[in-house]
Structures are given as structure tokens and as C-alpha cells.
Amino acid sequence: MNITKDEARILAAALDEAMYDFTERISDNKEEANKNITALISLKERLEVFSYDERRRGRRSMNSFTDTLNRFCNGKRHN
User: Fold this and answer.
1) DSSP string for residues in 1-28
2) pTM metric for this prediction
């Protein structure tokens, strides 16, 4: 499955918000929780690296997270 740069950026933000809740649900002890947090942080960082779009560097418009969400939602509505 392939994801777009906008999708990766949205997933990284969602993971950043929810990773501690996820870890609470799936971890039995503190050591396991630390390993899970480390893995989720690594995933988030990989998503952030992939989501970087060189074409948007230096632009003042269409580069905010809100613009990313709008682009994603508008694209899915037209498909």
C-alpha cells in the first residue's frame, strides 16, 4: 500500500496525539511501554521524513497543516 506525502503528514500528527493512549492500552508494564513508545516515535519520525515535500519549501501558502487537511479532504471528495 502506498500513501501520499499529505497522508503521511496527517498520520504523523495523529500518531503524535495518540501514541501515549495506544501505549497504555497495549502495554503490561513500564519496560514494555518504553519500548512501545520508542517504536511509535520511530514510526512518527519516518512518516515526518517521508511527508517532507521539497516543492512546498519556501511557499507561504498551502504549506500549513490546515492546508494539508483541506487538500486531502478535497481530493478524496472528488474521487
Assistant:
1) ----HHHHHHHHHHHHHHHHHHHHHH-S
2) 0.80
> Which phi-psi region, left, alpha or beta, contains residue 62 (left: φ > 0; alpha: ψ -120 to 50)?
left
Distance separating alpha carbons of residues 9 and 70, to the nearest angstrom: 13
Q: What is the CA radius of gyration of the chain?
A: 15
Host H or E run for residue 38: helix 30-51
Q: Are 52 and 20 in contact (CB under 8 A)?
A: no
Give residue 15's pLDDT: 96
50-68 pLDDT per residue, tens: 988 888 777 766 778 888 8
d(CA 70, CA 78): 12
Distance CA 53, CA 57 (A): 7
